[in-house]
Amino acid sequence: MCIQEAKQKEKRIMSIFETLASMSLPIDTIVNLSCNEGTGVFVHNETEVETAISNTDVVSTLSELISTPGLTVSTQYGTNVLESLRNEGLLENYERGSFSFSGYLTKTITDNFYDIDLIEYNTEKYDHKRGFTTLSANVQVSLAEMLNTRPALCGWDVTVKTAAGILTLNND
């Protein structure tokens, strides 16, 4: 991505925060975030999910969000993601300061993809050999924390319930 495109994307992301702040929503409003990306896969060898994990940025995008200091990321059912990973014993081997926490989370989520059930997957089969697999992460955060921390929202669609209906803001 060239510098000019990156600056334009940054302006759109800033406008998401500005839009949410200007709406006078209650501070305890829940903001839903969704990230979807897919890739062409081979389905005959049953590696479509692993291919999608390695060829898309969904896992790393989710890891970046989860590792944002001051931001509590919950599943769409309200379960705190970091607490859940801690309770499962998946964060015990991380030594603070040894390397990137988001990188550690990316590896942990990838290695335990089917057990922790944070990312949904769907494969559309074109024939007996080829298809397309989409990974989807759907989480929620509080409006107050989101406006205070201003997490990186590249790749995320932002949805919030307003008095006028559901508002979806995308930054792509």
Overview of the structural elements:
38% of the residues lie in helices and 27% in strands. The chain is an alpha+beta fold and 172 residues long. α3 (58-66) packs across α5. It is globular. It is built from seven helices and six strands, in the order αβααβαααββαββ. The protein has one domain. The protein has helices at 3-22, 48-55, 58-66, 81-87, 101-111, 113-116, 143-149, and strands at residues 30-42, 74-75, 119-125, 130-142, 157-162, 165-170.
Distance between the termini: 13 Å
Number of H/I helices = 7
Largest sheet: 6 strands, antiparallel
Which value, in Å, is the CA radius of gyration?
Answer: 17 Å
What is the percent of helical residues? 25-40%
Order of helices and strands, N to C?
Answer: HEHHEHHHEEHEE
SSE-based structural type? alpha+beta
State the low-pLDDT regions, or none.
Answer: none
Query: Quick one: how many beta strands?
Result: 6
3D shape: globular
Mean pLDDT rating: 90
Question: What percentage of amino acids are in beta strands?
Answer: 25-35%
Number of domains: 1
Tell me briefly what this model is.
The protein has 172 residues and is an alpha+beta fold. The protein has one domain (3-170).
What is the topological layout?
Elements: H1 3-22, E1 30-42, H2 48-55, H3 58-66, E2 74-75, H4 81-87, H5 101-111, H6 113-116, E3 119-125, E4 130-142, H7 143-149, E5 157-162, E6 165-170
Antiparallel strand pairs: 1-4, 1-5, 2-4, 3-4, 5-6
